[in-house]
Design a protein that fits this description.
Residues 1-21 have a biased composition (Low complexity). Residues 46-62 have a biased composition (Polar residues). Belongs to the carotenoid oxygenase family. Fe cation binds at residues 285, 334, 399, 580. This protein is 10% helix and 33% strand. The protein is built from 7 helices and 35 strands. Strands 4, 30, 31, 32, 33 and 34 form a 6-stranded antiparallel β-sheet that branches. Strands 3-7-6-5-35 form a 5-stranded antiparallel β-sheet. Strands 8-9-10-11 form a 4-stranded antiparallel β-sheet, with no helix packed on it. Helix 1 packs antiparallel against helix 5 (207-222). Residues 2-75 have low confidence and may be disordered.
Length: 592
C-alpha cells in the first residue's frame, strides 16, 4: 500500500531555474531482539554485510540473531543545500518527531523478513518437490515496500520503495528476479545518495513535525532537488495487466509501465499517463472484466471531488472521468468491487483529515461516529446522477473480493473482509480481526443484509480471475496469525452459508511453525476452457521460513481439501513479506 495521495504535498509551480534529474499494517508487538539482513543505512556509500542464519534442529534453541557490520566508506560529495537540508532532517527525526511509536519505529517495522533486500538479477531456482504445471508457464510478480535506504526517522510499513519479485516459469524450470520499480522518487534518491521525498504515513504526525518536514520539502524543491509534478509515489502496492501492458501500482501516483525481458529481468519503462488523460493518481486495485477486457479504476484524495471513477477500454485507452461529489468527506478508499453492470465503492470510518495533524495526530485517522456506506453506480455512467448510497453499520473494508448481481439485476451481492477493529488498522494491525462477509443490497427497496462466511481472521482474498464481476463459488484467503503475517491459505465455498449460515471453509493449507506467506493467487489450469470447473487450478504464493531464513515458491492444487502442494521451488535468496501479486501468462508476456 502506497502513501495515500499526492495532494498531501503542496503543488509547487516549477521554479525558473531547472532542477536536476504504483486486497492488507505494522507487524506484531516489538520483540526484545530483531534481525536485519541486508540494507543500506542513511548514505548510499555505506554497505551492510550480515552473517547467514543457520538451520536448527527441533531440539536446538533459536540461533542468535545475526549482527550487522557496517563498513564505513567515504561519503559522496554533497552540495551545500543538500547538506543543510539533511541536517534539518536529522534534527526533525531526533528531536521534533523521533520514531517513538512501535508502528513507525524502523527497528521494529523492518525486523526479520520485513527487512529490505538488494536487487537480484535473474537467477536459476531449484525445483525441490514435484513438477511445475504447464499452466504456470509465465511469470508471477509480487509487489511490496522495500526502502532503498534504512530510514533515519519514523517509518511505516506502508511506506518504502516498491520492489517486484518475479519468478519466471518455463517448461518446468524457474528463475527469480528482484528489481526496484524505477520510479521518479527512487531514481532521484538513488542519484542523490539519500532520501528526499517524505513519507506520508510516517512523516506527518502533529503540527510541529508536519510544518518542519513541509518546510524542508519546500526548500528541497526550490533548490532543484526534486520536481513533484514528475511523481512522488513508490509504486509499492500491486500490479495490473490490461491493454496488453503490465503496470506497477501505488495509489499516490500514476502507474509505472513494466516489461519482462526474455531472460526474466524486470524493466521499468516509465511513469504512464495514458496520453495525458490520467493525472495525479490511480487506485492500486483496478478491476479487469474477463469478458470485455476493460479495466475499471478510480482515484481519491483529500480535496473535492473526493472520489473520481473512470475506465479504460480493451485497448488500454482511458475514458472520461466521472467525479463523485456525493462522497462528502475524504475517505480512505483502497479498493472497490465490480459487477456486470455496476461499480461498488465503500466509504469507511478511516478518513483523511489533514487538520488532525494540528492536534498531534496523523493525516489518516478513524472516525468512530461515522456510519459506513456502500455506493453503487452504473459502471458506464456519464455522471453521478444514478449513484445510490446505502448505510451499512460497522462495515469497514480495506479489500473487496468480488461482487455480482442476482434477481435479474435488482440485487447486488458483494463478498469482502470486514475489519472488526478498524481503529487498529494503521497502528496495531496485529490486533485487528478481518471477518469475510457476504452483503446483499436490494437496489429497489434499499434493504441491506449481511452475514459472515467464516470465524477465522482472513484477508487478501482472491478468486479465479475469470469470475471477476460474475457469481462465483470459491474464495481463497490468507490466514492472519496475526496480520500482516499469513500463516496459511484457506478455501471458502461461499454458497454454503446461503441457507444455514455455517462455516464456509472447505480447504486449508497451513505453512507450519515459523513459516509465513502472503496473498495467494489463483491460476486456472485451463483458462480458455469455458466448461472448466471454477476451482480447477492452482494456488501460488511465496512462503518464508523464519527458522532457516529460506524462502520458497509453492504451487498448491486448489481442488483438494488439503490444498495439496504439487510443486516447491527453493528460491536463491529470501523474499521479504509484501502486499499484492499477479500471475501473467506466457501468451500475455509475448504481447507486452
Amino acid at each position: 500500500m502506497d502513501s495515500l495521495s499526492s495532494s498531501f504535498l503542496p503543488t509547487f509551480s516549477p521554479p525558473n531555474s531547472t532542477a536536476s534529474h504504483p486486497s492488507p499494517p505494522p507487524p506484531p508487538p516489538r520483540p526484545s531482539t530483531f534481525r536485519v539482513f541486508s540494507v543500506r543505512i542513511e548514505e548510499k556509500p555505506q554497505t551492510v554485510t550480515t552473517r547467514s542464519t543457520t538451520k536448527r534442529s527441533n531440539n536446538q534453541e533459536r540461533p542468535t540473531p545475526p549482527s550487522v557490520n557496517i563498513e564505513k566508506k567515504p561519503v559522496a560529495d554533497q552540495s551545500l543545500p543538500a547538506t543543510i537540508f539533511n541536517a534539518f532532517d536529522d534534527i526533525i527525526n531526533k528531536f521534533i518527531d523521533p520514531p517513538s511509536r512501535v508502528s513507525v519505529d524502523p527497528r521494529h517495522v523492518l525486523s526479520d523478513n520485513f527487512s529490505p533486500v538488494d536487487e537480484l538479477p535473474p537467477t536459476d531456482c531449484e525445483v525441490i518437490q514435484g513438477t511445475l504445471p504447464s499452466c504456470l508457464d509465465g511469470a508471477y510478480f509480487r509487489n511490496g515496500p522495500n526502502p532503498q535506504y534504512l530510514p533515519r526517522g519514523p517509518y511505516h510499513l506502508f511506506d518504502g520503495d516498491g520492489m517486484l519479485h518475479a519468478i519466471r516459469i518455463s517448461k518446468g524450470k524457474a528463475t527469480l528476479c528482484s528489481r526496484f520499480v524505477k520510479t521518479y522518487k527512487y531514481n532521484i534518491e538513488k542519484d542523490a545518495g539519500f532520501p528526499i521525498i517524505p513519507n506520508v504515513f510516517s512523516g506527518f504526525n502533529g503540527i510541529a513535525a508536519s510544518a518542519a518536514r513541509m518546510a524542508v520539502t519546500a526548500g528541497r524543491f526550490f533548490a532543484g532537488q526534486f520536481d513533484p509534478t514528475k511523481g512522488i509515489g513508490s509504486a509499492n502496492t500491486s500490479l495490473a495487466f490490461f491493454g496488453n501492458k503490465l503496470y506497477a501500482l501505488g495509489e499516490s501516483d500514476l502507474p509505472y509501465a513494466l516489461k519482462l525481458a526474455p531472460n526474466g529481468d524486470i524493466i521499468t519503462l516509465g511513469r504512464h499517463d495514458f496520453d495525458g488523460k490520467l493525472f495525479m493518481s490511480m487506485t492500486a486495485h483496478p478491476k479487469v472484466d474477463p469478458v470485455t477486457k476493460e479495466a475499471f479504476a478510480f482515484r481519491y484524495g483529500p480535496m473535492p471531488p473526493f472520489l473520481t471513477f473512470f475506465r479504460f477500454n480493451e485497448n488500454g485507452e482511458k475514458q472520461a472521468d466521472v467525479p463523485i461529489f456525493s462522497m462528502t468527506n475524504p475517505s480512505f478508499l483502497h479498493d472497490f468491487a465490480l459487477t456486470k453492470n455496476y461499480a461498488i465503492f465503500p466509504e469507511i470510518q478511516i478518513g483523511m483529515s489533514p487538520m488532525e495533524m494540528i492536534g498531534g495526530g496523523s493525516p489518516v485517522s478513524t472516525d468512530p461516529g461515522k456510519v459506513p456506506r456502500l455506493g453503487v453506480i452504473p459502471r458506464y455512467a456519464k455522471d453521478e446522477s444514478e449513484m445510490k448510497w446505502f448505510e451499512v453499520l460497522g462495515f469497514n473494508i480495506i479489500h473487496a473480493i468480488n461482487a455480482w448481481e442476482e434477481d435479474d439485476g435488482d440485487t447486488v451481492v458483494m463478498v469482502a473482509p470486514n475489519i472488526l477493529s478498524v481503529e487498529h488498522t494503521l497502528e496495531r494491525m496485529d490486533l485487528i480481526h478481518a471477518s469475510v462477509e457476504k452483503v446483499r443490497i436490494n437496489l429497489k427497496t434499499g434493504m441491506v443484509s449481511r452475514h459472515p462466511l467464516s470465524t477465522r481472521n482472513l484477508d487478501f482474498g482472491v478468486i479465479n480471475p475469470g469470475f471477476v464481476g460474475l457469481k462465483n463459488r470459491y474464495v481463497y484467503c490468507g490466514v492472519g496469525d496475526p496480520m500482516p503475517k499469513i500463516s496459511g491459505v484457506v478455501k471458502l465455498d461461499v454458497s454454503l452459508a446461503e441457507v444455514d449460515r455455517r462455516e464456509c471453509i472447505v480447504g486449508s493449507r497451513m505453512f507450519g511453525p515459523g513459516c509465513y506467506g502472503g496473498e495467494p493467487f489463483f491460476v486456472a489450469r485451463e483458462p480458455d476452457n469455458p466448461n472448466a470447473d471454477e476451482d480447477d487450478g492452482y494456488i501460488i504464493s511465496y512462503v518464508h521460513d523464519e527458522n532457516t531464513g529460506e524462502s520458497r515458491f509453492l504451487a498448491m492444487d486448489a481442488k483438494t481439501p488439503t490444498l495439496e502442494i504439487v510443486a516447491t521451488v527453493k528460491l536463491p535468496r529470501r523474499v521479504p513479506y509484501g502486499f499484492h501479486g499477479l500471475f501473467v501468462r506466457e501468451s500475455d508476456i509475448n504481447r507486452m
